[in-house]
Amino acid sequence: MSQREFHVAIHGTDQQSGASEAPLRTISAAAALAQPGDTVIVHEGIYREYVNPPRGGTADCRITYQAAPGERVEIRGSEVITGWE
Question: Which of 23, 62, 78, 79 is such that its CA lies 20 to 30 A from the CA of 47?
């Protein structure tokens, strides 16, 4: 049973490890790496992505997704529109 933490932050990149000092950029990238017993910690920001985790864990050993303590996280499926007239 795995018990790792993956960190996600707006300033991260999906080529990093997901450690607190090297966060991933997307929740989807963390979901792809997470195994039963792992925790995905999402840091403050607006994440514009569709998240469809490939696995959820097992009945007694789930994958947990949570906002970092005291930080506001928003997941939006919408895209930013620029140049609107």
Answer: 62
